[in-house]
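Appendix B, Record 12. Input sequence as logged:
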Amino acid sequence: MSTIFKFVILTFILYLMSTNQLFAQQDSVKYDLDFKFNDGFFLDFNQVRSNQAIPFKNIITNNNTDLFLEKLTNIPSFMLFVNGEKKNIETKNIWGYAKNDVIYIQYNKKFYRVPSIGSISFFVANIEVQYQTGMNPWNNSFYGTQGQSYTTDELHQFLIDFKTGTLYEYSIKSIEKLISFDKELFTEYTKLKKRKQKQLSFIYIRRFNESHPLYFPNN
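Logged structural output:
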């Protein structure tokens, strides 16, 4: 193979690489605080990642959008035009929605704002927790020795892997799993003592997000 022919092939390969990179830059945009989410419902996580919300105008309702969303947690299902077809959508099955550039995720039939968007995202949900009280050995009544159960609402923190849409309870173990893709950061974090890991957890999530930014289609 002649030197000139090799040079032509190498030039052609470099041209293809630069063209693909240009197309990639044109077809996607890096997420930042100025990014605009399309208002509407996300039926699944793929629609979130592609920023392809189904517009609120497709809802079949007599209420305006604000009132409809306000009542949404009490609406078991609603009619929605999807790809030109009228469909019955179960509220518990949708991923969430976007409004005014804010994403709301559905968790346990309620909708919660996602205040921190990144490769690792964060939100807080109010969940019902059941507790069992211990038995009272000094109580001679039959029922008194069995203990009692009660439920209470508690705020719990959650993480979203924005590569897959997987939800994780906020914990050191979850953070380690999510940042393990970045070997250097992962090693640094796991070498910390548990107390330091808890104190610096948000910092390491932020560092991971800065090193591994989110990209969305340039719609």
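The first strand starts at residue 28 and ends at 30.
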